[in-house]
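[step 3/7] fold_predict: job queued, chain A
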Amino acid sequence: MRNSYTSEILMEYEKIQDENKRKLQQKKDYVYKKFPRIKEIDSEISEYGINIAASVIKGADMEKTIGEAKKKMTDLKIEKSEILAENGLPVDYLEASYNCKKCKDTGYIGSEKCTCFKQKLIDKYYQQSNLKNILMKENFDTFDISLYSHSKVEGEDISPFENMQKIFKHSIDYVNNFDNTNENLLFYGNSGLGKTFLSNCIA
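[step 4/7] structure written:
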C-alpha cells in the first residue's frame, strides 16, 4: 500500500512540474512577443554560458573569460529586470515557480522526503481510513464546549465546563508544540464525555 501511495504521489509531482513549466512557457511567450529585447537578452545570456563551457574545455584563460562573461551576464540581467519593472511586471516574472520551494516540487531534498511529500502520504492514509471525512465534522472549530455544565459535580473542585476548558486548551497546546515535545495525552472517563471527539481534533 505504501509503495502504491509513493508512486501516486510521484506522479502528482510530475503533473505539478509539467503544469508549472506550461505556465512559465506561457509567460515567456507573452513577454517575448511584447518585449522582443528580453528574448534577445535571454539568448545572449545562454550564449555566454555556452562560451564559458567551451573555454573550460579548450583550457583557455578561464579566470579572465569567466570574469568577463559573468559581468556581461549581470549587466544583461539588470537590463532585463528594468524592462520588466518599467512595464509593471515582477523582476522574477520569468523565473520558475514552485508549489513547494523547499524541494522544488520533486518531493525530495537530497535523499530525504520533503515535508510536503510526508503531508501527501498522511492525506492518502486519511482518505483510505475515512478519517479525513470525520475530521471535517470533528475538529477544534466544531467542538462545542457549551454542551458542558457550569454546575459543579459533588466531590469535584471545578465544573465540567471549567474542566473541559482546561482539557481543550491543553489539547491545542499539545498540537501546537507537537514537534517540540515527547509528551503524550491520555483521555479517560465515562462514555459520551468527548474523548473520541477530542482525539479526532488532535489527529
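[step 5/7] annotate
The helical segments are 2-34, 36-58, 62-86, 115-129, 131-137, 160-176, 195-202.
The beta strands are 108-109, 112-113.
exit 0
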